[in-house]
Amino acid sequence: MIPIDGLPVLTAAEMHAAEQAAMVGEVTEATLMDRAGSAIAQAVARLAAGREILVLCGPGNNGGDGYIAAAALKRQGLAVRVAASDAPRSTGACRAAAIWGGAVEALDRAEPAPVFVDAIFGTGLSRSPSDEIQNALARLAEAAWLRIAVDLPTGVAMDNGKALGKVPRFDVTLALGAVKPSHLLQPAASLMGQVRLLDIGVATRSHARTLTRWHLPEPDANSHKYSRGMVAVIAGSMSGASELTALAALRAGAGYVLHLASAGVSGSAAPHAVVRRDYTADALDEDRIGAVVIGPGLGRDADASARLEAALSGGRPLIIDGDALRLVELGTLAKHKAPKILTPHGGEFTHLFGEVTDDKLSATRRAARQSGAVVVHKGADTVIAAPDGQAILCPEASPWLSTAGTGDVLAGAIGAMLAAGLEPLAAAEAGVWLHAQAARRLGKAFIADDLADALSAVRG
């Protein structure tokens, strides 16, 4: 079982093409099924720790994988039973059922077992399972000590993260050959438990992958405050939000953070390391500025629009967040030639790019292409995409991030990475990774100020 950090993510079409490409010479569909079944059995045996196992098989190739796994578990001397939703239909499933050769119980009458393995439909499902299947799954899952899904839980669509009916929550999902979009997209991702990859000997290539820890920029003996990155944060009518952004940029590793607010607007006195100046029309002329963050607490009045226009015309690498995402226009964004990163939550994304009608991965890629920017589409299932189609899918984030100001902290963290010289996609990934790790470290009921402070601890 392989952790999925940094691994390629394949859609249904990409996975089918990869499997077809793997079937050359003596490698056949049966070969891949045998590899999958053997890998499933090895993983299940380790997790079951000697407990009785019930494998649920469907009529297609996912069910075939289940029959092969059950046969392998039986050969190991483990107590294993098989229940089926229907008779095998595909050639591979018929062959696999013959290899199992044991009793097959009817799904709706099967008795529970401590370890429950769902190999009914996996990735091949495009519509809701029957009520009979859904009810049986719910009953058997409820009674199990450990719930394991093969490839995808029955009732989950492969590419869009949708649950097609009532789907139990699993403890472990064993991805066959490659990670799939629904392992990471909500609401399906919340049903998966831990996702682990099983290698079945299929070469996988994709322009999408899962989040991983980037090699974060580190100072050396020749570093100084400007070489570590200077971040300018443009404040607006709510200076608390931009102060959080400035603090986060410092805590994420920036060497110099400049907070630009209107004359007379009072900000926090701490930390004293943030340099506070009045905003002026030429405030961004400083050549050493490596990234500008605009949007947190900006407001949406004429003054806010003027500041956004100045940031767009200033030619500096730019992070656009919060209120600025409500003010900016796609046509204007295209004119800004310097690197830029947009960080919308769901509502801001809809305002700027329209409703998501297909899936979050496709929509975010489309938005990046339209805007010419790296787009960080925030949420429990954050998706990052670049204009060239590269995309990063992020594991489920802490639900405690659903509190005011955490998005401002993320903007500051990404700003620090961009100012330090990372390319926009890498800067976005590094900032998202830091943000998620800080939330995980804090546990429950933290506030955004705590989150900003925790960035330093994560870097340490």
TrEMBL record:
PROSITE patterns, sorted: YJEF_C_1, YJEF_C_2, YJEF_C_3, YJEF_N
Keyword NADP (UniProt): yes
Keywords: ATP-binding, Isomerase, Lyase, Metal-binding, Multifunctional enzyme, NAD, NADP, Nucleotide-binding, Potassium
GO biological process, any: nicotinamide nucleotide metabolic process
CDD domains hit by this protein: YXKO-related
Domain YjeF C-terminal per the UniProt entry, residue ranges: 208-460
Binding site for K(+): 62, 118, 154
Cofactor: K(+); Mg(2+)
Binding residues annotated for (6S)-NADPHX, in chain numbering: 61-65, 122-128, 151, 241, 297, 345, 408
Domain YjeF N-terminal residue range list: 10-208
Comment on bound cofactor: Binds 1 potassium ion per subunit.
Enzyme nomenclature, EC number: 4.2.1.136, 5.1.99.6
Molecular function terms, GO-annotated: ADP-dependent NAD(P)H-hydrate dehydratase activity; ATP binding; metal ion binding; NAD(P)HX epimerase activity
Sites where the protein binds AMP: 378-382, 407
Top-level taxon of the source organism: Bacteria
Reactions that this protein is recorded to catalyse: (6R)-NADPHX = (6S)-NADPHX; (6S)-NADPHX + ADP = AMP + phosphate + NADPH + H(+); (6S)-NADHX + ADP = AMP + phosphate + NADH + H(+); (6R)-NADHX = (6S)-NADHX
InterPro entries linked to this entry: Carbohydrate_kinase_pred_CS, CARKD, Nnr, Ribokinase-like, YjeF_N_dom, YjeF_N_dom_sf
Keyword Phosphoprotein: no
Database matches in Pfam families: Carb_kinase (PF01256), YjeF_N (PF03853)
Primary role: Bifunctional enzyme that catalyzes the epimerization of the S- and R-forms of NAD(P)HX and the dehydration of the S-form of NAD(P)HX at the expense of ADP, which is converted to AMP. This allows the repair of both epimers of NAD(P)HX, a damaged form of NAD(P)H that is a result of enzymatic or heat-dependent hydration.
Quaternary state and interactors: Homotetramer.
Similarity comment: family membership: In the N-terminal section; belongs to the NnrE/AIBP family. Belongs to the NnrD/CARKD family.
HAMAP family membership: NADHX_dehydratase, NADHX_epimerase
Name of the featured protein: Bifunctional NAD(P)H-hydrate repair enzyme
Organism: Sphingomonas yabuuchiae
